[in-house]
Amino acid sequence: MKKFSLWKRWVKSAAGSEELRSSDRLNHARSSRIPAKRRWALPVLLVLVLVLAGQSKALAAFWNLSGDIAVHDPTLIKEGNSWYTFSTGPGIQVLKSDNGTSWYRVPQIFLKEPSWWNSAVPGQKDLDVWAPDVQRYNGKVWLYYSISTFGSNRSAIGLASANSVGAGQWKDEGLVLQSTTSNNYNAIDPELVIDASGNPWLALGSFWSGLKIVKLDKNTMKPTGGISSIAARPNNGGAIEAPSIVYRNGYYYLFASIDSCCKGVNSTYKMVYGRSASITGPYVDKNGVNMMNGGGTVLDAGNVRWKGPGGQDVVNGNLIVRHAYDATDNGNPKLLINDLLWDANGWPTY
């Protein structure tokens, strides 16, 4: 159900620091000032210092970004020393950074519509492309994306490939998967997932009957076999989309966005997660609730400045990128990046 209808208003340079990193300053006691009978406490103090230092690292996980960071539904890739963010917008918008924090806009991917777009989604127009996903696999860069119209599941997922992001020369690989009004799912928000055995899968979905996953052929990078359901919100208007899956230590972790995007500061988007021992599920949250039954532990529901975070992409299991609406800038959507941390029980956190 994603739409970037206010692209001309939202695409602009958004310079400045995005959020102050938190840090604790610790005052170290000198042993000479501590009575001998109390020096037994020094090991305890050392442990406390180390714990607080660890907390400081966690609090500092938010990347301070600057430059042009206007995005919606971002996906992130690093190639050499360069970083690239692909996002919703005309022809697929692209940002580049030479250090990961200072960003500038570079040319979009599509300058004209591939011939198959119009037949797949007749109502799609103006090079309006949604929620891309970029990853390197088997020596190539694969760029999945979706076309649709707001509120409809007459949608399609397309694919482009290149030998490298920097070189460009993207090749149109054509239609991957489509949905029509006769289907009970929506073929948007694609996410390339590589399983523990190195096999490619495609996660997708928005509203309707929820999130899906299908295995891909390694050669064509297109579906082979049946589509499995992995998450749904049957009691919440179906408001779940933007799957992102990462494998870590025996589990597949499914991240998703729930509730409403695209309303500026009134957006209620939130990021949730669950995990499964199998890529096709069942995925359960920290309370053991199946994500097919509306489960999902909230990772981020936003704050005073950043409203409605979502459209996330988990990169290499240690970074999470998403957009949020900036309450200090008329609710314009902007790029946010965090180090993704993991607690002692294997659950994701900031």
UniProtKB/TrEMBL annotation:
The active site is at D73, E241. It is an enzyme of class 3 (hydrolase). CDD domains: GH43_BsArb43A-like. One of its GO terms (biological process) is carbohydrate metabolic process. Pfam families: Glyco_hydro_43 (PF04616). Its EC number is 3.2.1.99. Substrate binds at D73, G151, N186, A187, I188, D189, S206, F207, W208. Pathway: Glycan metabolism; L-arabinan degradation. SUPFAM superfamilies: Arabinanase/levansucrase/invertase. It catalyses: Endohydrolysis of (1->5)-alpha-arabinofuranosidic linkages in (1->5)-arabinans. InterPro entries: GH43_arabinanases, Glyco_hydro_43, Glyco_hydro_43_endo_a_Ara-ase, Glyco_hydro_beta-prop_sf. Belongs to the glycosyl hydrolase 43 family. This is Endo-alpha-(1->5)-L-arabinanase. It comes from Paenibacillus sp. AN1007. The lineage of its organism: Bacteria, Bacillati, Bacillota, Bacilli, Bacillales.
